[in-house]
Amino acid sequence: MTPNRMRTMADKLQHQIDDKFSDRLSNTPRRQRQAAAAVLDGLHLERTQSALRWLADATEANTLPSCLAGLRSKKAVHELTRARIVRSGGYYDAGVETGEPASESEAARVLWHALADRQRERLEKERIRRALDDARLARIPGYFPTPANLAATVVQVAEIGPRDCVLEPSAGSGALVDAVVSEAPSAPVTAYEIAPRLRAILEMKGHGAALAGSDFMEVTPRQVYDRVIMNPPFENGQDLAHVRRAFEWLMPGGRLVAIMSGNALERSGRRWDEFRAWFESKNGKAELLPAGSFAESGTGVSALLVVVDAPAVAARLVVEPTRSGLQYVLPGCEKVGASAPPAQMDLF
């Protein structure tokens, strides 16, 4: 095979690779196995594509190892790039690659060594993908991962600046944190997540340094964040309490963007009535998300996208009694005599 021929074959594999890695439902054990099997096929095809390109470069540079000089077809290369797969024995287990070649031939070992860096990167992505699939079926209370497109919308609405400090108080498996890293990579993020399995996924993704604790509801709020983004659990009105508590972490002028239950502003009951009154007092805004927004997460629940802005630092008039009468104190300013009425100070 000539170098040009190998590169052409590699390019033609892209359509098959894209198909194998396309989004598939994985909200049941059977669908999860089908999705996992497609990914294994995609990994094999992608490895063959990389091998063909590497072989083309090595041939042109006259550095091709002798044990690989006899390769005459894509099929032969594809056989060398086949991975050893281990299975747990479960009916729905598609298996997982070990990172080693299925063949014990010298040609396979040499080729896999040449592709080692690429392999490590792909295996780590596959490990995360499997952990995410397992988490979806683990029935973790309140866990419905935010779809990537919706997470991107939340971050865009939050208008996160490069130096904004961001809080994600119910991080789950990290969809919103991922979106912040993509949209505003220099913005520091603090995350909380109560479920150990999901905390482990956050660690796998490289978000371990962002984790500040497990249950943010048990932490005393401090006004230190410019932005709060969140998709809290909906069950039993938990989202109401979580949003109000998270708002307490905002600095003046900050913004909270949350995904909430679709009936959060309509349902009757003491907690809902109190939340609605609070929400209106903060001039909050809400928009109903399109039906099926969480379909890929295995639920048809309706949801709102909610925005609540914390007011900027406002001038507050403090009246203090003195021996000579009342004095009006504007924090940060000098005292003004009682003869100057508040209305004339143009505070508001």
UniProtKB/TrEMBL annotation:
GO molecular function: methyltransferase activity; nucleic acid binding
Keyword Methyltransferase: yes
SUPFAM superfamilies: S-adenosyl-L-methionine-dependent methyltransferases
InterPro entries for this protein: DNA_methylase_N6_adenine_CS (IPR002052), SAM-dependent_MTases_sf (IPR029063), Small_mtfrase_dom (IPR007848)
Domain named Methyltransferase small: residues: 166-260
Record keywords: Methyltransferase, S-adenosyl-L-methionine, Transferase
GO biological process assignments: methylation
Gene3D superfamilies per the UniProt record, alphabetical: Vaccinia Virus protein VP39 (3.40.50.150)
Family matches, as Pfam families: MTS (PF05175)
Transmembrane regions listed in the UniProt entry: none
PROSITE patterns attached to this UniProt entry: N6_MTASE
Record's protein name: Methyltransferase
Organism placement in taxonomy: Bacteria, Pseudomonadati, Pseudomonadota, Alphaproteobacteria, Hyphomicrobiales
